[in-house]
Every structure is written in structure tokens, then in C-alpha cells.
Amino acid sequence: MTKTKDTTTKKEASSTKYRVMRVNNPKNGLVHYELVPEGQTINQHYYLDVLRRLREAVRQKRPEKWAKKNWLLHHDNARLHTAVTVQLYLAKHGITLLP
Length: 99
Description:
Pfam families: Transposase_1. This is Transposase. By secondary structure, this protein is of the alpha+beta class. The protein contains 5 helices and 4 strands; from the N terminus they run αββααβααβ. The chain has helices at 10-15, 44-61, 63-68, 79-82, 84-92, and strands spanning 18-25, 29-37, 72-73, 96-97. The strands form 2 sheets. Strands 1-2 form a two-stranded antiparallel ribbon. It has a two-stranded parallel ribbon with strand order 3-4. β1 (18-25) and β2 (29-37) form a beta hairpin. The longest helix is centred in the middle third of the chain and has 18 residues, at 44-61. The protein is globular, with a radius of gyration of 17 Å. 3% of the residues are buried. Mean pLDDT is 78; it is low at 1-16.
């Protein structure tokens, strides 16, 4: 393997680079985060998996909000957010979007 400037191998360097997806609550702190490996395509299918894990994190970490369905999701109009499968999932599970 070829060495990079920081003396780690290219394979090691590429396996440690991530993009972070975070879900915060201003008053109560971090609810959920995911490290997305470099090169991972974030499409509607990947995003649906993230939403499933997010729902579970809210259920476990914010049971009072889960019980009252008192939580909002804010995302932009990226293609994967507006995909029909994502919109159907949000509607099916009563997830309210912040406008």
C-alpha cells in the first residue's frame, strides 16, 4: 500500500473518512447521528433506513415526545427528501415536517 502524507495507508485513510448526519434538539442536545462512509451514496433507500433509525432513537431517547407525537423533522427539498417513498413513509408514520 502507498503511504499518504500523514503516514497512514491509503486504505486506512479512506476507511476513516465520514460525513456526519446529525439530529439535534436545541434544549436537550443530540438525539441521533450517523457516520456516513465516504463514497456511500445517499439516496432515498439509504435515507429511509436513516429515518427508521431516527424514529427508534426518538422513541428511546425522548419517550415523552414519542408518546405525544410531539417532534418535528426538518429537511430541505433535496431529491431524496421529496421522493415518493420517503413522503409515503413520513405520512404512514405521522412524522410532521417543519415548514
